[in-house]
Amino acid sequence: MPDVVVVGAGPVGTLIAALLQRRGIETAVYERRTAISTRPRAVGIHPPAVAALRQLGLELHGARQITRGEARDRASILGAMHFDPPVLTLPQHTLQAELDAHVRHLRRGAPVLTVETGSHAARVILAGGSVGARLVIAADGVGSSIRSSLGVTWHRRPGHGRYLMADIDDDGGLGDAAALWFARGGVVESFPLPASRRRWVARAATGSDLARCVAERTGISLPSATAEATSIFVASQHIAERWVHDRVVLLGDAAHELSPIGGQGMNLGILDAVALAPCVERALDGDADALTRWESERRPSARRAVAQAAFNMSVGVPVPGTLQPVKNLLVRGLARGPAARMLARAFTMQQL
């Protein structure tokens, strides 16, 4: 019987497994998907998460550095902030493959149906059997079946919106800068990716024509292939009422959902996992309060991240045309001087 079973083999689930195995804790990972997904997902890795991953020995091969962020309107740069240390961009499937190489006992194509908890152990019920463990870590995402089976309340938080997104060949002439356009129709976000590609995201209440949104709001023409590459997502935010339930711990998106605008969700999960690993070791050694202390220490970071994500989305909400110049004037003030340095720290999660 393993000491720990991790449900979910995304970046956060495989990271906590690798960290526990490095501590000599027998850990098994079960993932319902049969292979790593290559569809566009998280790409931004902020400095605190970069430091944590490199301590594990990850090289983050091929990552692209972002050292500058620009606030723009269609005609000009309103202000800029500098990221030191830089933000890295790396497709999630590339990061996932590197993490997988650091994990033993990872089984894909093994959906977990539910978890039964007892006074001395938990039992993970699989489609084709079961396995016991002293502790279960549910890292099975926003739609966590483990969280649902435990009856844990999923509290909605401020901040939501509908967005169009595509990763395309980089022909915007923006170099290595991340850029955020403030326009009457809504915000457009763009940042560089490895392999001379670029991600484009636009807030849009209706429609699916990302190229049109970008052209109208920025003046930049995207290639015709953008339509086929565009996906639509609705951002929302939640925090689970509790993260520790008997012998089950909720981790990552299973514990908290953040808007992907600003790229904080995966990064928060990484930092949660780094803090959780030593607490799991202490819990297995008999410290009955180790896991609840971890939740108490990390929950404020989740609240701050939710507030930051809500702010990130609020700046993209369309305003009446007569108010857009006023909004841009405020943005110009925030994106210069000491305020810009404070915002740069907030955007790169150095306060979490």
UniProtKB/TrEMBL annotation:
Gene Ontology BP annotations: 3-(3-hydroxy)phenylpropionate catabolic process
Ranges for domain FAD-binding: 3-156, 202-308
This protein's UniProt keywords: Oxidoreductase
GO MF, one example: FAD binding
Domain of life: Bacteria
Entry-linked PANTHER family: 3-(3-HYDROXY-PHENYL)PROPIONATE/3-HYDROXYCINNAMIC ACID HYDROXYLASE, FAD-BINDING MONOOXYGENASE
Protein name: 2-polyprenyl-6-methoxyphenol hydroxylase-like FAD-dependent oxidoreductase
Organism: Paramicrobacterium agarici
Phylogenetic classification of the source organism: Bacteria, Bacillati, Actinomycetota, Actinomycetes, Micrococcales
